[in-house]
């Protein structure tokens, strides 16, 4: 008959609970796992499965009681670290959403919006299209596997410790937030530039022929040019988005100091 002392039972609980908390923190916000369309039971099962795999590989853990103040602080720290790592990838998708919003507003499709269950807010059609494309590319490049691999390796680079000062750099996360605007500008720039030239041409045409109904022909032209540029841009989106995912994984794992190659699809 197997007997466990109270101390051994506490060690077993903490060896599973603290890694599980960090893993669930990432799954809660990181795309595509953080999508609200995925049932909570599936997220919890995935987190438990990963924790069962990771827990035996973790080295020495703090000997704090999980119900003590120190144990609760460590639990909170692990959850915050998981959330921060997940937000690094979420920021990239927010930048892609912004690119779609800017392109859609410039095209005149600002009225073509609907409720997005992921962000719990309004989202334009172009923005949703780019996000779905980026999500498919994220899965096709096996970036989700690289993200989970970075999460597992984080238990070595950011070990579970009672030292609450050790952990993910929140300052780096705040600085990384600028990627929303950088990504949105870079991805939408070709469409915005083409539509700017189109609007200038329409303005010159209006001055040359004042009797021309610019409102009758302006919207179809800008929408048509926008879709044309979007179709021409699609084949060239893979390289910048792949580079963006690699940068996100670098920041998530090493703070941007090292490179994480994406697994090559078979």
Automatic annotation (TrEMBL):
It is found in: Cell membrane; Bacterial flagellum basal body. GO terms for biological process: bacterial-type flagellum assembly; protein targeting. Role in flagellar biosynthesis. The gene is fliR. Belongs to the FliR/MopE/SpaR family. The chain crosses the membrane at residues 12-30, 42-61, 73-93, 129-152, 180-202, 214-237. It is a multi-pass membrane protein. This is Flagellar biosynthetic protein FliR. InterPro entries: FliR, T3SS_IM_R. One of its GO terms (cellular component) is plasma membrane. The keyword Membrane applies. Keywords: Bacterial flagellum, Cell membrane, Cell projection, Cilium, Flagellum, Membrane, Transmembrane, Transmembrane helix. Pfam families: Bac_export_1. It comes from Undibacterium rugosum.
């Amino acid at each position: 008959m197997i007997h466990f002392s109270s101390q051994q039972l506490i060690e077993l609980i903490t060896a599973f609970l603290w890694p599980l908390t960090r893993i669930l923190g990432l799954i809660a916000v990181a795309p595509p796992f953080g999508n609200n369309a995925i049932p909570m039971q599936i997220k919890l099962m995935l987190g438990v499965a990963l924790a069962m795999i990771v827990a035996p590989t973790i080295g020495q853990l703090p000997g704090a009681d999980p119900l003590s103040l120190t144990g609760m602080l460590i639990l909170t720290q692990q959850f915050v670290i998981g959330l921060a790592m997940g937000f690094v990838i979420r920021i990239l998708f927010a930048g892609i959403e912004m690119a779609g919003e800017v392109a859609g507003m410039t095209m005149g499709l600002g009225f073509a919006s609907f409720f997005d269950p992921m962000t719990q807010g309004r989202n334009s059609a172009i923005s949703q299209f780019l996000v779905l494309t980026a999500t498919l590319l994220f899965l096709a490049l096996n970036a989700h596997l690289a993200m989970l691999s970075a999460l597992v390796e984080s238990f070595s680079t950011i070990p579970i410790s009672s030292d609450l000062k050790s952990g993910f750099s929140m300052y780096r996360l705040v600085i990384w937030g600028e990627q929303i605007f950088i990504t949105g500008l870079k991805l939408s720039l070709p469409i915005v530039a083409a539509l700017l030239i189109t609007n200038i041409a329409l303005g010159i045409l209006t001055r040359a022929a004042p009797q021309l109904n610019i409102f009758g022909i302006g919207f179809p032209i800008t929408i048509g040019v926008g879709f044309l540029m979007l179709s021409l841009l699609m084949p060239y989106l893979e390289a910048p988005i792949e580079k963006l995912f690699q940068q996100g994984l670098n920041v998530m794992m090493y703070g941007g100091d090292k490179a994480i190659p994406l697994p090559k699809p078979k």
